[in-house]
Amino acid sequence: MAAVTLKGVFKSFGSTRVVHGVDIHIEDGEFCVLVGPSGCGKSTLLRMIAGLEEISGGEIEIGGRVVNKVPPKERDIAMVFQNYALYPHMTVFDNMAFSMKLAGESREKMRQRVEVAANILGLMEYLERFPRQLSGGQRQRVAMGRAIVRNPQVFLFDEPLSNLDAKLRVQMRTEIKELHQRLTTTSIYVTHDQIEAMTMADKIVVMNAGKTEQIGSPLDLYDNPANLFVAGFIGSPAMNFLKGKLVRNGAGLQVQMADGSLLPAPETKAQEGHEVVVGVRPEHLLVRSDGVHAEVVVVEPTGADTQIFCKVGGTDVTAVVRERHQFKPGEAIKLYPELTFLFDPSSGTRL
Amino acid sequence: MLPSTVLLLLFLTYPLGLGTWLGFTDAKIGRAGHFVGLDNFIFLYGDAVARLSLFNTLFYTIVASSIKFALGLWLAILLNQNIPLKSFIRAVVLLPFIVPTALSAIAFWWIYDAQFSVVSWALMKMGWIHSYIDFLGDPWMARMSTIIANIWRGVPFVAICLLAGLQTIPPSLYEAAAIDGARPGQQFWYVTLPLLTPIIAVVMTFSVLFTFTDFQLIYVLTRGGPLNATHLMATLSFQRAIPGGSLGEGAALATAMIPFLLAAILFSYFGLQRRAWQQGGSDK
Lengths: 351, 284
Description:
With 351 residues, chain A is α+β, with helices and mostly antiparallel strands.
């Protein structure tokens, strides 16, 4: 097991730079998730750690050793690919034992280690099957088995669940997390799904356009987003954003909306008169007699809670409330935000 | 349904049936034959030239197909890499295959000419040889020369088909293999080759069939000479049947090719093509 450190890592393809100076430190045994929209450079970053992509600049350290020029097989890592990358012409056993076969291990040792991994993953009865004869979830397990057998210092996962259906994805998510708790091997996991990131990670790295936007624990990112991007990316349904202006009155600092209504403002260093973007999570919106004017568009009861989609001065706003409201489309209601975040409209940073 | 069946039967089986039937008769040009049983085959079995043509055909097929496979695979791997002007080069590689055989045969005939050969000329100029090479005059030189011409013509087909096969192998398999510790040679042996076997089986079956039944190239270059050293079964069969007039004998020689061709097809079908991992079923 090992810590992984990235120092000022960047990557260019020709003249286009796709990763701009990324610094990440991942502790030994940590489960780190790289999350971001597609094309943000997260997969490229993972492939650089794996050694499948050349590092254009900066340093990558695994277990205190700089691996920039070390070939993949000597980095002591194992990778689970999005399409599983199982060898179709080999049985499950041979797939899992392939690295040991190349290393010239004895048949006895191969059997022993494959069986340990197969037992953990519940693959014992499939060892003689070919990948084609397995379901998606089983293939996914074989891919993980192949990684476990190598007993690496670091596990790398490249969107491993995106080829599975929704139900299986939730199940495998739990399995991977359980596996990590059991093996405590440092893991780096790439996904575009913020729910996967939130549920699995010890540490989340939010990436956008080749840069890290914020690094922190899941709840830290949720409670304290550093900027508009992170605030909008983490959380589902996504945070609502409304334009307003800071004013000071008898009640202290408040945000005045376009319709004149006043919302509570959090502690901030920003000055009165400052144009701001107010961020409100859907679950912090309450249907009350005060607050901003909203026009109901659709109401979706999910049983446990009710999602209200409405318009506030032309902006789409989603509220998630515990009560079971039955508003008509077009009905005027008032939404009051319990908790707000303030962002600078031009730079997007938190105020 | 019925008309198409009739058409198929007529145009597919009639020529084939007639050819086979002729092999069992003593038909000559201008004379309808009588059924003579296996007489033609027994005669051919004892005929030294026919036996030589069988040897020539097997030698020609085995040597040319093996080299076509090796060169084709090598070329396919080269073309599968990221090289500038990729599609242009791929198109150029196909040229020998597109040119009519008779045309390329004439070109080779000129290259192999005893007096005007450009190869001999070049080697002389470089001082490697002291007299012109008699490419098509010596039996073994003629065999090798025709084989080289056949290889030149056949490699593009093999290369392009194998290239298509290579492109179906997902790059992530090589990445996984690299992480698993496979060197390039091992990646080729454990990943590329096994995944390519189905395509190899199909391509090589076709290649063997084309080579075994080759006619045009030999007929333009040597007409079977010198001393029947390059006569293949196909050329000898034509020689006996049409210029020689013995339709029955020629047909019998052509019919004698069928078991070899069937054997090649069955070998590739059972030996190479069927793989349990492709089926998803239970057979191994």
